[in-house]
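ASSEMBLY PREDICTION REQUEST
Request ID: AP-0331
Submitted by: J.K., bench scientist
Number of chains: two
Total residues: 224
Priority: normal
Notes: Please return the full assembly, not individual chains.
Input sequences:
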Amino acid sequence: DAKTTQPPSMDCAEGRAANLPCNHSTISGNEYVYWYRQIHSQGPQYIIHGLKNNETNEMASLIITEDRKSSTLILPHATLRDTAVYYCIVPRIDRKLIWGLGTSLAVNP
Amino acid sequence: EPEVTQTPSHQVTQMGQEVILRCVPISNHLYFYWYRQILGQKVEFLVSFYNNEISEKSEIFDDQFSVERPDGSNFTLKIRSTKLEDSAMYFCASIPFLAGDYEQYFGPGTRLTVT
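STATUS: Completed
Returned structure:
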């Protein structure tokens, strides 16, 4: 299983971009990187995923390095409602999600 | 937008009692999961379910746990004889397809308190 490493916590000012890094140096060629978030004990919420190319949707952008060993989730204009724990996960082939402790993002006014 | 629903939102039970946690996955989804999260800890995989049988279960999912899809819409998790350490948030999740995207859709969770 590809293991991921994330900083335990980050701060961001409201309205600014939040850049959340993730290392996944053991990822294999056909494994995707997924990002989820969990707002205070609510059900986890899917954000975005990618394989090689950078991806963007209405919630966020995902930048994956060329060697695929790390990625960055970007929330372009963070709001207070983006305060949450963000998880970077490389799902197993059987789709089971193995959760780490994630990055606790605090968006400050 | 379709969503996964879970009932009840909060269940309080006494140690040794049986509880059934209910989930209604999104209607065309094929793969179902239960996860739990003890307060302040990681989300933990419990069990996956496909084609009316368990695909995989974790070490946590012992003989006290069972899952069922009784009527093609509900997906239930039963704990036969609850222990204090079963107190946690329980999340149901589902995915639509067998191949391709692994985006899991999660329900809001059931908070189980065992006293």
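REVIEWER COMMENTS: The mean pLDDT of chain A is 92.
SIGN-OFF: pending second reviewer
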